[in-house]
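Next up, sample data:
>
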Amino acid sequence: METTEGTLFTSGQKINPMTEWRLLLQLFMGLVLFVTGEGASCPIEFSPSKVVVKYGDPVSVNCTSTVSNLDGLGWEASQGGIGLTNVTSLTWTVESLMQWNINPFCFFSDLDGRQCQKRPELVIYSFPESISISSSSTSEMTEGNPYDLVCNILNVAPINKLIMTWYKEETVIKVEDFHLHMDGNAPKNVSIGPDIECSTIELHEGETLEDTCRVTGNPTPHVEWLKEGRLINLTVPLRRNDTGMFLVKAEGRTLQEKTIQVDVLYGPEWICPQTFTILENSNNNLACSLGFPKPEEIWFKDNEQVELPQVLTRRNAGHYQVIVSSALSVSKTIPLDINVLYPPSKIFELEDAEVDVGGNLRLKCSSVSNPKPNYYWHYYQAGNLIEETEDGVSCLIILNATELNTGFYTCQAWTEQGRNRVSSSMEDFSGARLVLFILTLLSLSNGTKSSAELECPVEISPKEVVLQYQSSWQAVQCKPKTSEENVGEIYWMTGKGTKIVNTNWFADTHRDWDPQPVCHGVFTGIGNCSKALPYTLYKTPESVSIQVMDNSRLPVEGTEVQLRCDIISVAPAQNLAVWWTFYQGNKTIEPLGNATCDFSPNSSNRSPVNVSCTMNITLERFHNGIEVRCEAELNLGPEGPQPPNMTSSALNILVLYEPKINTTKLPETVLVFRDSPEELVCEADGNPRPTIHWEYTSKTAILKSEGKLVVDDAGFYKCNATNEFKTVIQEVKVILIEDYLPLIAGFVALTVVIISIVFLFIYSIYYKNTRMRRYSFKNPKFSSQNGNVANNGWDTQLPCISSFKETVLQTTMWFFIFILIPLSGNPVSACEIKFSPPVVVVKFGGSLSATCSLSSCTNVVGMGWETTYSAGGMQSNVSSIQLNITEVKDWHPQPQCYVTFSDDQDQQLRKLPIIVYKTPTHVLFNQIHWGPMVEGQPYDLQCDVFNVIPTAYLSVRWHKGNEILSEEYNFSSYSNVTWATRLTPHRDDDGSEIWCDAIVRLLPTGLEPQPPAVQSERRKLTVKYPPTFAEPENETLEVTSDTNKTLNCKAAGNPSPSYVWRFAHSSQEKMLNQIGNGSVLDQEVLLSGIYSCTASNDLGQTTKYITVTEAKGDRTTFAAILGGFLCLGVALFIAGFVFAQPNGKFSFPKGHCVSGEGCSLVLKPSRVVVGFGESVSVVCEATRPVRVLGWESALSAPQTHEDRSVQWKVDSLIDWIEEPICYGVFFTAPRQCEEKLNLVLYKTPDSVSIRPVNNTGPMVEGKEYQLLCEVQNIAPVQFLTLRWYRGQTEVYKHSFSDLTSSSPVQVSSTLVITPTKAENDAEYKCVAELELGPEGPQPPPAVASEPLTASVYCSPTFFNPETEVLEVTHGEEITLNCTAAGNPAPVYSWQSSHLIQEKMKEEAVIISSSLLPGTYTCTVSNMLEKKSKQFIVKAKIKAV
């Protein structure tokens, strides 16, 4: 083993023998993490991030990657390596690390083929095998002589972490760090080398490096100097370019290297000319002074010190003085002129102009540049223009303007530096400036002041082209409407950018659907102008069909179906109109819904497309049998051709619906005469046609065919109408009554006799009075007007004998119909099959038994059962037969009982009504976000019932405590049922339990006992609500010295409210420290005034105002009597003063207190608007002499004056019920009047907030949502206007003028919105504004809520949804664009029978030259919807 020595030099001092020295060596091994930076950009993480392991010990490092498209991870190592594995976390493990130079790294690969690797920081260490010390002397040391001490450390690693310390006794004499001396991980032996004692050297130019750096060592080291790998001769003088880094090598016992900075000093020197020319905005590259150290430059301009900027502009041009100095020499002053060249600036005084016909116009063009600019004008040469240039300004003068002067005028300013570069960009330094302006002619020849529109002077013939697909070609000509000298060029441009240098354009009707032909003309002074040709190439549809979408769903009443009308291959779809026609029999009815089409009228695609129009219909039973057709019409304008419309075949709508019993024919109550049987008719409408079944207990009832039942007994009769969807029950109560018909008939006969006698008596009088007119029935004359017999000019109506006979005959006929026929009896009923029980109810998997029997049947050969379980065959000569099924495994067994007859009667069949049921396996209370609820807000609760059949008999109930919240029956879904209800909690519901249960109610079918109900889990309600005071919100208390001085502010709320008191006097604020935030204020002394208490929690706050007044003390009896006499004396004095007349008499006029217009009082101001807590002052003035003038107010004692004005003033108004009144007592009538002050006390809201109702996430386009705006503590509410804004647009305004509260209240407003995709990220806010009138603050005080940003989700929408057909040749690049817009951003996937590269399968656009012919389907989806689009790629066949 090789040993490296560490040497310690000592002096020859007198010391004890070396064996008596105690020399200690402390080995400090610091193992520090060294970050190399490898894999900084590689998304790999290690755990642990640094590993320190002893040689031979086990080691383990975990590698993890979070890349989403990760393909796999692996470890590369000479010991314990692992290949690529499809995991996100992989551990490298070695049981015994035995390699010093192992360098493992973790690598990963993603699905895009990208790879990277990263190495963990691994430190392997080993402690020394032995440490020893030796000396160059084998005997005792002599004082003053140097000796070498060597410390030998064997096999230590890593050496660059080693620190060695020399001790003499307990004193440290030397510390040596080996981190720069040796590299490598393997164990090494330590050795001490030479020491280089310099680091930086400064020399003047011409000096040498000899003796500039001391190098020590023992033995004396060999020293070499190198620069950039070249050996340096230390005796050669240095030059300025020798400045840099030198490498010093010293080789003794060890080799030491050190990098030394050598600086060569020189200068300063000046190298720039006296005049410096530069382009404006160029970088300042003035490096005029040289030297080391770098000379200092001080710049002066106009005797002022300046700092030259990095980028020079025209403002930096001029004469400069530069003082250059350094530490090596005296300063120098250098003159310097800077000349900045800049292009023409923005042209001034040149704008679009207007001029009257015949008028003159001067156009100015002015610019600034260095050197001065030249000008050039470009315009239409009309012969009446003059150019003038003077003092750097160019003018163009138009004399006697005509229509020819209308057009474009261009002024160009340029300099010599830019003659050869003309650019219209004013930012590019080209030495030129171009300005284009438009001259508009104002006055036309008729003198009207109307601006003439500049029209391109070309004419297209024909003006519009409408052609049918694959019709003959048509040429369109474009020619100029002006002279040839002004025409530069006439050509056509298509939408694809193809330029056709010809005046004629030919329409291709076979393949170019939207050429977008535009005629262009280039004219002098006008430039390039164009006129588009309206061109339409149309194609009638290949077919029109109509169908029902999603045929897998049954068309049950109440469900929504979608009708789709498909128009195949029509163009342009923008001109397509689709008409829907509905027929009910031969009658046309109104459409059942609104139709929408999937093609946008604003689409730019004009090629043939397939258009689908849909109509959503909610099925109702009267829709059954309606025929629907759709018709496609191409509307090509009034002047275009009108191709015939194409109509689809008829679609018949089928609606399945539950039975509905005709209650008109079968009422709930039927009266039956005793001994007169009544026929009950049970008719039900349903699809499929329902079966009728009667349930009754009467033994005399007779069941007839077609749902008829003849009854003659009182009781209850149930009619069951059943089809596949539901069983409907109508219960009829039959009441038996006595037949009073004979008695009634006798009474009627007696009444007829009496009426007849009265009639005969009246008629005899009539005949006697009219007999003198000598009526004769022989040869009577009839009136020409009415056919009555006329005699002697009289026209009198007589009864017609023939009509009397007819009446008798009709009476007799109806007598036989209503009396005799009913007495003839009922017909004999036919053969009937009966079941016992009538309806069988069996649990799935259970057994059933039923009997089939015959009633009133003759000529029966035999009967039997037909069933899928077993066929017992027909049994002869029996009247009943029994069915037994041990285990029902079919939900619809439908066994049939049949009867065979011996005569020509047809065999009769009847299905046994069976209901197979299954109780729910479990019931789930589905509430994802369950937690505390807020009072008054609705919450949706969902109950999921699993595996229950049939749902038609299912009942789902919601319970809250002992109360049933809601119950739902007759579900139409199969097996699994979901039913949601809405709960609006109240504070009384706090702590109540809520749950739902499901029960199959089979009682109507006769099953007892009922199956038990299946319950969900029970949950406890926690209801939060704002504080509400238990006692009245505002109180007035009178306190005396002996009463309890307690103010109660107790409020109920959840969470429990906190309280804040405000006192009537500031001196009482110290009471806050005593009561804290308590709800009760109990003090020995309460001053008069208004106290306010605010109770608040997370949901709101409310304030209570308590007015404390001091009660007047009790008076003694004496004081009461004395007061009475005094009042009487004062009353007599006032009466004498007021009512005494000059003659000594008293006059008592009848007077009264007047207010309003008759009152002589004026309030200034008459209306006052004041904020809560602010001061207020109002003056009351009398317009005539007054005895007494004063104010009455709740806040202060009455104020009276004898002056003609009195002031009411409050420093801080906080009383919401304050109504001050000014009153006056006058000398003359009216002697008393009063004026009430119109006082408005207002308070702005504490807060205005906005939030969505029952929605916490993004909104979905097309759905309806509610936004709630809440305003806390505002008064008076009748002046409040709540404005809703979307962005800066007001969308709704809510006024509260119908409310009358004057104290602060909490109000809210709801805005119903149906967001669209355009409203994504729209901000909603509400603003509470108090409109207090002109006396109030202006502008009105307003408080706005924080904006609510609406995130609107919308389903994907293709930019081009139609199927695209593309023809390509082999190897041609093709683009399949499936781009769609949606929120969230849609995800794309491609499917095809041909192989598609993996990286393309999730792209929106596929661009490839290797796609094979076939169909490629692109599916785009987000969380709302999935849509597909097809691309048909066809191989283009080359012509031979």
Remarks:
- Helices lie at 741-770, 801-823, 1072-1075, 1117-1139.
- The chain has a mean pLDDT of 78.
- The two ends are 90 Å apart (CA to CA).
